Protein 1
Amino acid sequence: QVQLVESGGGLVQPGGSLRLSCAASGTIASGYHKAWYRQAPEKQRELVAIITRTGNTNYADSVKGRFTISRDNAKNMVYLQMNSLKPEDTAVYYCSENNYWGQGTQVTVSS
């Protein structure tokens, strides 16, 4: 059974940083692309960042230069380092791979 569990969300002031983690189980660690999505209130879920099996990355324009996605295949983990956070980054963040989704972790950027 595939399970994805996110952690690391919370409340942070504008300009601050957070690191999200996603632990996967029941999947082949290096077998799939891994991605982070987010959904803000009353908005559609959007792709934030993706990392391929070979480590290539791609980002939404809104987070380029501020967010970094990485993966650790030995631990079957994917991370999202978020720096210079803005209030508009406030959302529930989800990790995803192979059409499976985690339960999400709330990120709130507010003073």
Protein 2
Amino acid sequence: QMQLVESGGGLVQAGGSLRLSCANSGRTFSSVTMAWFRQAPGKEREFVGGIRWREGTPDYTYYADSVKGRITISRDNAKGTVYLQMNNLKSEDTAVYSCAATFAPGSIKSMGSYDYWGQGTQVTVSS
């Protein structure tokens, strides 16, 4: 079981940066996939980026084209936390950002792959 809690959202000016955190109740796992999704008003939820790790292998990260080059996903296994660092934010990045997790294999960018979801954190970028 996982309980995901996001934090770090807020209001930022265009061109600024934010770092979102997704804490998994402080638990650590040797193999899991976690991802960030976002949903803007009036739009469908979309994949932002994800990270998959398996014990004994390098981490695998994958980013949506719309944010590639502006975001980095990392993790602190000791804290059971995954981070989403967002730079050069744009007004179109305004959305509720949610993290998700799964132990199962599957497409890292597909919402249907994930079994556990956080409540989300609001990111608002002012132009």
Protein 3
Amino acid sequence: QVQLVESGGGLVQAGGSLRLSCVVSGRIDTFTRSWYRQAPGKQRELVARIASGGSTNYADSVKGRFTISRDNAKNTVYLQMNSLKPEDTAIYYCYIPNGVTGYWGQGTQVTVSS
């Protein structure tokens, strides 16, 4: 059984930083890892993705501020978030594509105050 557990969210002032972690347990053959977020009243959106070879892509709104990385030995993917803005406030989810629905974590709340 595959499980994804996120941590690291919290309340931070605008301009601050947070680092999210997602620990993956269970057998999974897919190496792509992604972070999504969902703000109140909005659709879930892709924030960042890292592929098996290490290539990354980001939403335009976070480019230059967020960095996705992974530690394969720890089965963990990270999202370093700098220069946070109030509009970054959302629940952040870790995601692994697999089949039709893929695997989702339970989410971690990030709140950025102005």
